[in-house]
Amino acid sequence: VSTQSTGSSGINAEYGGLNTEDKAKIMQWIQYSYRIQEKKMPIDRFAEEINNYLSNRTFMVGSCPSIADVAIAHSINRYLGSLHITPEIQWELSNLVRWYNLMQSSKSWSYPNIEFFKRPFYF
Questions:
Q1: Among 13, 18, 53, 97, which is most exposed with the fewest C-beta within 10 angstroms?
Q2: Nearest CA to 36 among 94, 96, 90, 88?
Q3: The whole model's pTM is what?
Q4: Model confidence pLDDT, tens digit, residues 10-68
Q5: Helix axes 43-53, 94-104, angle to 10 degrees
């Protein structure tokens, strides 16, 4: 997977990281996505770790989607699709669900969308 950004080609310049630190973080998340695919530990533990990581972030690295977000989203897609998502599970994984909804709303999303429960809006 290339993390080189082209900027002038119309591709988001941050997709592959704007600086060395972001590029290193992106590479770590890509490696993490391989661990998910290889089932190096139970998928629910991966989901919990990602949920906790996203508790104060919108994206995996930086302020917009990067290759890291794509790699992780594609790696956990099958898991989320196979879950019988109850409101309780959705609540427990609320950061992951928020982030995943954001990822699957992108124009380039190629998997079938996973429907989550809509939370009632209270005043």
A1: 13
A2: 96
A3: 0.75
A4: 345 556 777 889 989 999 999 999 988 888 778 888 889 999 999 999 999 988 899 99
A5: 90
